[in-house]
């Protein structure tokens, strides 16, 4: 399915998920007949004519006052600021180790008060207000892989190898004041480094969800102390533990890989990359690479632990925040922001 022009609403057809027998984790219930995923184009961020251009690693965070912040491993120590209409405002930061400077690729998370930027290279956590003015910084050790705004206010949820030098994956809720930090125990699923990488979101004040990149594994922890509550698995025969774990266009056909996680109004949205019918093991360029993958969306009722609906669209997308995803168009040098809703 191809995205249409701005303002056009697409209704993505329901795809039921095959059932499977669980072992140590309970599988989510199958999707019920009826609900569908509705997707609408919220904004398009144009990089045309700019010195920077998005690649498939680009991540988008909404600004609390309106607009968007884009980070990418190809940006030279800065993040790109776009207004609510999708026009470029300016670059924020530059490469370096001083205040408001970044070492390279960063992880961003938006909150009600402003934006958190985690800079692993400088071992630093920075906070910017609604106008992208730096208001505070602190040192933070550990390899952060993803971040999400915390419903606790004034803090951010971090996912990764939080303890310095650790190969054990865990979560943390931190703020600019280190005496308020909360560090969770190691998450249940500890395997290869690739499997451990998790995306994190907080659908309610009482729960935090973390989803592994491969295997469809979900850890649900307590929103207060980040202790384990429940472990789930997304059903589907395609999550074969013996299958390759990397999105690699030069090897075998890969299994689905999680590319993002977000939540809104009690719904958790899992975003996955799935090799489509055009898949080939021959080497391909980045634009062609995005064409041999589809994006699968799985909508889960966070209270009932039930899959409400799933949908599939062309190309590679990742999660933004609050039930939105971003789709990078490398050829057109733009990023489309798509809003997701469940229609009954």
What does this 3D model show about the protein?
This protein has 344 residues and is mainly β. The protein has one domain (9-343): TolB, C-terminal domain (Neuraminidase, 6 Propeller), CATH 2.120.10.30. 3% of the residues lie in helices and 45% in strands. The chain has two helices and 26 strands. The protein has helices at residues 193-196, 286-291, and strands at residues 9-12, 26-27, 36-46, 59-62, 68-71, 79-82, 88-92, 107-110, 114-119, 124-129, 134-139, 143-149, 156-161, 170-174, 182-183, 198-204, 207-212, 217-222, 228-233, 257-264, 267-275, 293-301, 306-314, 317-319, 324-329, 334-343. The strands form six sheets. It has a five-stranded antiparallel sheet with strand order 1-3-26-25-24, with no helix packed on it. A five-stranded mixed sheet has the order 2-19-18-17-16, with no helix packed on it. Mean pLDDT is 77; it is low at 1-24, 191-195 and 237-251.
What would you report as the Rg, rounded to the nearest angstrom? 19 Å
At CATH level 2, the architecture is: 6 Propeller
* Assigned CATH class: Mainly Beta
**What is the domain tally?**
1
Strand content: over 45%
CATH topology: Neuraminidase
* Helical coverage, percent range: under 10%
Mean pLDDT: 77
Runs in which pLDDT lies below 50 for 5 or more consecutive residues are 1-24, 191-195, 237-251
Query: What can be said about the biggest beta sheet?
Result: 5 strands, antiparallel
As laid out across the biggest beta sheet, the strand order is: 1-3-26-25-24
Say how many strands there are.
Answer: 26
Kindly, what is the distance between the CA atoms of the first and last residues, rounded to a whole number of angstroms? Answer: 21 Å
Class per helix and strand makeup = mainly beta
Q: What best-fitting shape do the alpha-carbon axes yield?
A: globular
CATH superfamily: TolB, C-terminal domain
Order of helices and strands: EEEEEEEEEEEEEEEHEEEEEEHEEEEE
How many alpha or pi helices?
2
